[in-house]
Structure prediction request, 402 residues.
Amino acid sequence: MSLRDQLQQEAAAAAAAVPFLRDDAVTAALERAARLVVERRDAIAAANDADVNAAAGLDAGSLDRLRLDAARIDALGEQLGELAALPPLERDEDGWRLDNGLEVSVRRIPVGAVGANFEARPNVAVDVAGQLLKSLNAAVLRTGGAALRTVTVLVDEVLRPALADAGLPPAAVGLARSPEREGARILVSLPHVLPLVILRGSGETTAALAREAATHGVRTLAHAEGGGVLYIGAAADPAKAEAIVEASLDRLGVCNRLNLLLVDRAARVELAPVLERLGIEVREPERLGHEWANDAEHIASVTLRVVESLEGAVEIANWETSGLAAAIVTEDETAAQRFLTLYRGTAAFWNATTRFTDGFALTGSPETGINVDRVPGPRGPVTYRDLYLRQYRVVGDGTQSR
Prediction:
């Protein structure tokens, strides 16, 4: 069977499973999946060890994202349990009665089967599939080949058995079972069964897939480029600035880490010793928005600019970076409020690190990704609360006409 045929079958089966998904049964499935992570931890660890050992050519950041140690396996189960405990998506959005007697209500209905293409990061399989099931959508997953063994175990020995135990179709979670990159292109070319595809990964690869999807009429939620901006304002407290810089660089291979450091010329803060202590180099990229988290050779780097004003810092953050997140460090509330008002990205922080740009950290629910699109729709960390279509329901008595 060709990869296209396999993916079409997986997608069709997932779409057919959607009408059978119910909030109570999905909750039971997620609870069961949380327990299965514990029961199957040896199989998960063995598959992940095999993936890591076969991926010797990956850079340190990619290997870190691929690796599931004991604590990270425990975290998979814990997050599934916490997701199960969250309230279901509220289906009734609004309602009103028109002068002609028509009763209008607005309902949130499932999208259907949703594709997800993500980097070799096994925990994303559980995050995305869990969010989609919680919103009563089905999932068809495609991961980077380096993580395929681990993700296969998570699908076949955790998620699908949990669905079956809850009386739901196991096919509600599908998987591309080939490491071929062609799988990603196929995933975004099946509009009748996968009208929406979640894209996560490096900037150019994800952007190319989004363009490919558009040619097939497939909508995407793309998490491509990231990188946090930190502006040290003129009235920044030095100790607070140092602490936030350090907190912003606790992990280097993640999208919401400090990427671009903007320092007001009037600031009385010396950051060179902090960066040196953390082993972080200041590098000059070709463009300010260059994301160091995706730079295998220079991952332990930041870009630094001295700026003349708050407005100058915001202009750079708005127009020369991805728009993921930006933070200001200042004791001047007026300046902070102006920064928060002017910045147009998905998350704005005052005296806090952009590392909190994360669905679980901000909402208590794992995310499918962080959408930085500058159009209406789910933006920022996308969780199960965002994965729906709006439907108008209208009830009359047969006497109404235009």
The chain has a mean pLDDT of 94. The first strand starts at residue 92 and ends at 97.
